[in-house]
Structure formats: structure tokens, C-alpha cells
Amino acid sequence: MAKFFEEPSRTFNEYLLVPGYTGENCTPDRVSLKTPLVKFKKGEEPAISMNIPMVSAIMQAVSGEKLACALAQEGGISFIYGSQTIESQAAMVRRVKATKAGFVGSDSNVSPEDTLADVLALKKETGHATMAVTENGEANGKLLGIVTSRDYRISRMDPSEKVKNFMTPFDKLIVGDEDISLSEANDIIWDHKLNQLPIVDKDQKLVAFVFRKDYESHKDHPLELLDDKKRYIVGAGINTRDYEQRVPALVEAGADVLCIDSSEGFSAWQANTIKWIRDHYGDSVKVGAGNVVDEEGFRFLAEAGADFVKIGIGGGSICITREQKGIGRGQATATLDVARARDKYFEETGIYVPICSDGGIVYDYHITLALAFGADFVMLGRYFARFDEAPNKLVTVNGNYMKEYWGEGSARARNWQRYDMGGDKKMAFVEGVDSYIPYAGSLKDNVQITLSKVRHTMCNCGCLTIPELQKNAKITLVSQTSIVEGGAHDVVVRDEHFDAKEK
Ligand code: RVP
């Protein structure tokens, strides 16, 4: 007889938190959202922790290098998508690692032979007024000068004027060498009243810029997640097919943590992948695995040596795995089951394997619920894909600003490697859709509001840390009718489409 789970599986939307006692010291500014990313032994510290419990999904529409830097600034981690060539993924990781906090890689470069018209076009495209003049206009080429809007007067100059004739040449520039610290760079900026300081290596090649405005913003990010060389921490997705080539390239590029990206993680292929990594790198390379939705799946991956385990099948906003294959489980039930398995495994072995609730977060409070259900952190796709920093396109649809968002299992992503058994393209079928989602602005603004809500709710539950919430939260199921009661009801909400005329 098949195994039956007697209870229906449920989603986060079916639950609410019941407040606990809030003491006078239980205030949002005292809440710590620090959480482990990778496994650790009882009494020891994890090799990597995050300052906020959020990671971005391993997806083309979500986790590119800009988002990775912006999320690390806020205290979380991005997993750069693996559905691209090994070379381009490693190059993305390398660029994130080259972006030391406060040091910005130049994406506006011109050559001395370019013209004023080229400069103006590039300025329009990137929005950046400062450009590096390098040999052949290469990003990390020999620095020959810089151009800022102080170097030209559009009304007085011919658009065909060559950059070499109006740039500020290298010998007139103040520059920093590549070993300079951010505070030393900032001192030079202040002492010489500069807006930016180019950083060059011993061969005069451009490494980065430090901008006055970025130093200020660096101070605004007390939670930023940095490695011991003050570089942003970044993750990368891998698959169970080309890991023998992909893993070494990503490790060499500086990825801090890897994660096997698959719709179904309870498989021999995942164990083989982890084993290969352990055989070649021991514990020095950190790798998460998944996704699973029950105790058995968790235990399998924990015993295989995963550094963290991801939970969720079919709950993603763009995911149609449940419709296509009939596999999956409600995200709240899956998280609860796996959290119990993690605690049991910890009791038995003394090893704590963090778990991540992946997909299906719709409202901000779902994050708090996922943590209360036992997750150590959450992975989000749709949420981050709405932001400026995501690599997907901003478009207008019926007059509204939208971002494109497509699943890794969609025909658009062509990520057949994610499906261990679907490598033969003739057998492959889609498990995801291509969609639009409303544009929401900058990552920083949104993440800060989301986490403010999480902190407030935790205080309502009387909890100052995630482990306290996991232990002490009180959770209730809600009925369909009480869900209606939870929104605005029995009133006509005023918005721009409806405004009454005063009598
Ligand atoms: P969401 O945050 O609800 O958009 O879900 C994102 C998650 O959905 C990803 O982290 C991944 O686990 C899953 N996903 C990505 N692509 C697909 C698909 O095409 N089916 N599913």
C-alpha cells in the first residue's frame, strides 16, 4: 500500500501568528536577523552566516551580478544563475568579488579615439557621468584619463571632438593603488575635494572607482555581508551534470557557496554531485542541495553531506511542476516536516543543517511565517525580480511598468540541466511559465521595508532572534472567512480610480 500523508498539505497563506507577550525591551531595533547559511557542529559557529534571512533565487531573471552586490549590501546572498555557460557564470562571480564594498567596477569606458557624441550616448545609456578612458575602451584596460561632465561643454564643442582632446589625462589625475583601504581612499577624496578616485594596479590598469557618494552609502549599510577581504559574499548555482567542469571554475572565480539547482533533490544525482565535491575539496567548498519536501528527502541530503537543504516543490510563482507532473507539497507543511527532521538530525548527530524555504512567498509576513515554521532563511524569485538591480527587462504593459519574469523550467530559460532526467530535449517539457510582474523600484528600499515588518511581527511574538521565533511562535490556521476579514472589507477603498466629490 502506498504511503499516505493523512493531513492535507498547506500553504503559508493558511496561517497567521498569534502574538506573544512583548516586553519593554522587545523593540524592532533590538531584533537580530542573523542566521546560519551552512551546517555547523553543536557549540561551534557556522563558517558562513547571513545578517538577514533572505537569498535570491538561482534564476536568469533574478540573480545577476548587480543584484548580488545590492543584496550583499543589505546582508543577504544571491546565487548567480547556472543556466549560462560556465565561463559567463564564473565571470559574473568574479565581477561581484572584484566589487569590494565601496569599490565599484567601471561599466562606463571609452577609448581616446571615441568622440564627444560617443560619450553623450554612453552617458544616456548608463546614467553615469564619470567615464574611464582606457586603451581600446576596455573595462580593465590601461587607464589613460577620465571624462566627467566638467570636461566638456556641449554648446561649444563639436560632437566629433575626440575624447583624447578633452579628457583629464592620467598625469593630472590623483589615483589610489589597488591595496588601498576604503577609509584611506576616502581620506584622499576628502583631502583633494574629489568626487571619485580611480584605483589602478601596478601596470596602471583600472581596477575600480571609489565614489564620494558610495562611501556615504557604504556607511548606510551596517549589515552588509563581506568576506575577510571586504568583498561581497556571493553564491552560485550548479547542476548535477557538468559539475566536474563548473565547480572548479566557480571556486576559482571566488564563489563563497554553491547550491545544486534542481526541481527535485531526493536523487542519486545530487548525492553524486556532493560526493564529487567532498572528494575533491573536502569541506572547504560549501554546497547546498534540494529541493525536498519531507523528512526522508532532508535526511538523504543531510547524510549525503549537504551544507544546507532547500525545501519546496511546485510552490514558486512561475512554477507549474504540480500541474505538469503531480508532484509537490504545500510549502508550509513541507517546511514544518523538514524543520522537524532537521531538529531530529541535530539531536542525533550534533550537526545543525540549516534549511531554506524556497518559493511561494507572496506577502512579506510569509517570510516571518516561514521562519516561525522552522526555516533558517528563505529563497525568493518573484520578490527580487521586481527590482532595478535584477537582470531582467523593464517594460510597459498597458501603460504599467512591469518586469519580465520567467521560470528556470520555462521554454525561455532552456535550463534542461536542472532536470536530471530531462537532459534529452525531445523528452523535456516545460515546468515553468514566462510572465510579467509589477516593477517595484530599488532592492534596498523594498528589503528594508520588508524586514521592518518582519522585525515588528517578531516583537509582537515576543522574539528578538530567529531561533527564539522558531521555538516560541504561536501559529494558527485560518478559515476562508477569516482570510476575508483580514483584508479591508465592507468599505470602498479610496484610490486614484475612485474619488468622491464633496457635497
Ligand atoms: P517565487 O519566489 O515564488 O517566484 O519562487 C522562486 C522559486 O521557484 C525558485 O527559487 C525555484 O525553486 C522555483 N522555480 C524556478 N523556476 C521554476 C520553474 O520554472 N518551474 N521554479
UniProtKB/TrEMBL annotation:
Catalytic reaction list: IMP + NAD(+) + H2O = XMP + NADH + H(+)
Native organism: Absicoccus porci
GO molecular function (one): metal ion binding
Family note: Belongs to the IMPDH/GMPR family.
Alphabetical list of PROSITE patterns matching this protein: CBS, IMP_DH_GMP_RED
Protein name: IMP dehydrogenase
SUPFAM superfamilies tied to this protein: CBS-domain pair, Inosine monophosphate dehydrogenase (IMPDH)
Residues in CBS domain copies: 98-163, 167-225
GO terms for biological process, alphabetical: GMP biosynthetic process; GTP biosynthetic process
InterPro entries in the cross-refs: Aldolase_TIM (IPR013785), CBS_dom (IPR000644), CBS_dom_sf (IPR046342), IMP_DH (IPR005990), IMP_DH/GMP_Rdtase_CS (IPR015875), IMP_DH_GMPRt (IPR001093)
Keyword Cytoplasm annotated: no
Keywords tagged on the record: CBS domain, GMP biosynthesis, Metal-binding, NAD, Oxidoreductase, Potassium, Purine biosynthesis
Cofactor annotation: K(+)
EC number: 1.1.1.205
Binding, K(+): 314, 316, 319
Taxonomic lineage from the root: Bacteria, Bacillati, Bacillota, Erysipelotrichia, Erysipelotrichales
Binding site for NAD(+): 261-263, 312-314
EC class: oxidoreductase
